Amino acid sequence: MKILNLYCGIGGNRKLWGNEHQVTAVEWEQEIANIYQDYFPNDTVIVTDAHQYLLEHIKEFDFIWSSPPCPTHSEIRKAYVYSGQNEVQYPDMQLYQEIILLKYFAKKTANWIVENVKPYYDSLIKPSVVLNRHYFWCNFYVKKRTFKDSEMQIGITKVNETKFGFSLEGVKLKHRKDQLLRNLVDPEIGLYLLQQSQKGIKPLFNFDY
Questions:
Q1: Which domain holds residue 8?
Q2: What pLDDT digit, counting tens, does each position of 70-128 carry?
Q3: pLDDT tens-digit series, residues 132-154
Q4: Residue 183 pLDDT > 70, yes or no?
């Protein structure tokens, strides 16, 4: 199966997918892409704009996972603005552009997922399923289940540089290590959603716009 993993980061969602699939991963930052490639040497890693790459290659894949940047949507942003730690900023609408694009223009046999955090506003497009603190929009049925809350179990600090088996200890980055680790999707959720997509159960009706 040909899989497109957009905004791949260091690969939380991808960790348990195995090596039987042909995975293309897209990441904007070279140093982050290098870490991903170290963990997944069999994947094709492309350093470019994931949003544009999806537009140009949407018909080429059997399964598409997209995790657009979440900071402008996160509940934490509103708290930071109120406390004076962040300036007011527009939510990045590329999130909703990709949901609409995938729904109408992905190839008919493809399954797709768009992932983001729970927003501080009422979601403009209702998610297909909510798993832990993540919203997922997809074109297949996902049975709701609960996963262990890793955020509660693992305090992600500058001292603790390990999460889900990924370690950034000794790695020099211009990015905050704790932020990279915090952005990881639980690999168990990543595997669960891939398995659900392969069952081929489509929703009884499409989510409304």
A1: 2-154+186-198
A2: 877 777 666 655 565 667 788 889 999 999 999 999 999 999 999 998 888 889 999 99
A3: 889 999 999 999 898 886 554 44
A4: yes
| Contact indicator for 24, 43 with CB cutoff of 8 Å | yes
Tell the residue number behind the tokens 């997918």, with chain if given: 17
pTM of the model: 0.88
- Confirm whether 143 is domain-assigned: yes
- Number of structural domains (the chain) is 1
Contacts of 155 (CB under 8 A, 6+ apart): none
Residue 172 lies in a domain: no
Residue 180 belongs to some domain of the structure = no
Pairing of the two strands 166-167 and 162-163: antiparallel
Nearest to 36 by CA among 50, 15, 63: 15
| 162 domain-assigned | no
Q: How confident is the model at residue 171 (pLDDT cuts 50, 70, 90)?
A: confident
Residue 100: give its domain's CATH number. 3.40.50.150
Structure confidence at residue 152 (pLDDT): 44
Give yes or no for a contact between 90 and 72, defined as CB atoms under 8 angstroms apart.
yes
